[in-house]
Specification:
heterodimer; A: 307 residues; FAD/NAD(P)-binding domain; 2 domains; B: alpha+beta; Glutaredoxin
């Protein structure tokens, strides 16, 4: 079986940037990803990516993809990695379709929405329950809805829904709302929003579509009739499939400033790592660094073998 | 000969934008329904797909939920 010089896992800002660098270094590599753009594709307005005063997520992702496709790169799209393991000098990468071998790997698999893990969640996904306010808020015109969470993403979803929905129940399991004061104030003073603090979600209720949500507020149970539920309780790293690599308590892959993990030849970049601050521009820079580190690792190895 | 393609979408959903772009790039004509403003289209979309996620594509009665490039290619007979 062919052994690649590098395999990049993930097609978000980090993975795509790593691919551009690898192509320019003429490395023999592959990019394996579930989709192109990752979380960036879901961003509404991006106003902090240098060079663009304003650009939407899908537009920026298109530019990234265009840049990458300028090179003759093998991209395995719609493919999901299920296992990464290093044995000897080789990294084995198992996906839902194939098995690959490589001398180095860059894990840039990003993060995904955290789920509630309550009864009814699986059943009502896309049947009133959603994790993307930007996408689905417009479907709930003049309807009663619930937003779950208390951080910035929950506040952002609530602000989007104020313009659309009839009434919003903001269900927060903490004593107070978190997030930025400027957003919080807009919500706290709005008659369309009922804030329910110290409130826990117990069950999603419905038949074909969502009809309500069962919650317990300070121990008192009730069912609120809503047709839409927006889950905004944060993100978790896509790192479960990586074996032997050190992770922090959040499940993020621990890297040093050269994007090296504890395993030589295994690099990681972007939101899946413990890099401080999760931003598109930072993910891109991390992807570039990871690729240069992998390149250096390969040259050094070759130098030592030929000595 | 040409298949009738309908797409149910919202103006803000990234995958809807990319799905429409994909169709245009492949010179596929399509009818567009904005389910955020057209409640009748929203009901129709829920009826045919049994769910509320966008985009939904209706290609000659074949329903595709989400921007599933491979299936769209297959149903449209694109290489």
């Amino acid at each position: 079986m062919k052994i690649y010089e590098l395999i990049i896992i993930g097609g978000g800002p980090s993975g795509i940037t790593a691919a551009v660098y690898a192509a320019r270094k003429r490395m023999d590599f592959l990019l394996i990803t579930k989709d192109i753009g990752g979380q960036a594709a879901w961003s509404g307005a991006i106003e902090n990516y240098t060079g663009y005063q304003f650009i939407s997520g899908p537009e920026l992702v298109n530019k990234f993809e265009e840049h990458m496709r300028k090179f003759d790169i093998v991209v395995k799209e719609n493919e999901e990695v299920t296992e990464i393991r290093k044995e000897g000098d080789i990294v084995y990468i198992k996906t839902n379709k194939n098995v690959y071998q490589s001398y180095t790997v860059i894990i840039a698999s990003g993060k995904r929405s955290r789920e509630l893990n309550v009864k009814g969640e699986e059943e009502f996904k896309n049947r009133g329950l959603t994790y993307c306010a930007t996408c689905d808020a417009p479907l709930f015109k003049d309807k009663n809805v619930a937003v779950i969470g208390g951080g910035n993403s929950a506040l952002d979803a609530t602000l989007q829904l104020i313009k659309i929905a009839r009434h919003i129940y903001l269900i927060n399991n903490m004593e107070h709302l978190g997030g930025d004061a400027i957003m919080r104030e807009k919500i706290e003073n709005n008659p369309l929003v009922t804030i329910m603090n110290e409130s826990e979600v117990l069950e999603i209720i419905g038949d074909k579509m969502v009809k309500g949500i069962k919650i317990a507020t300070k121990g008192k149970e009730e069912i609120i009739p809503v047709e839409g539920i927006f889950v905004e309780i944060g993100l978790i790293p896509n790192s479960e499939f990586v074996y032997g690599v050190e992770k922090n308590s959040l499940g993020e892959i621990i890297v040093n400033c050269r994007n090296e993990t504890n395993i030589p030849g295994v690099f990681s970049a972007g939101d899946v790592t413990n890099v401080p601050e999760k931003q598109i521009i930072i993910a891109c820079g991390e992807g570039a660094k990871a690729c240069l580190s992998a390149f250096r690792y390969l040259s050094q190895k070759r130098f030592e073998e030929n000595r | 000969m040409d298949k009738k393609v309908k797409i149910y979408s919202t103006p803000t959903c990234p995958w809807c934008i990319r799905a429409k772009q994909f169709l245009r790039e492949n010179n596929i004509a399509f009818e567009e329904y904005d389910v955020s403003s057209d409640s009748q289209a929203l009901e129709e979309m829920i009826r045919i797909s049994g769910q509320m996620g966008v985009p939904v594509l209706d290609i000659d009665g074949e329903i595709i939920v989400g921007f599933d490039k491979e299936r769209i290619r297959e149903v449209l007979g694109l290489s």
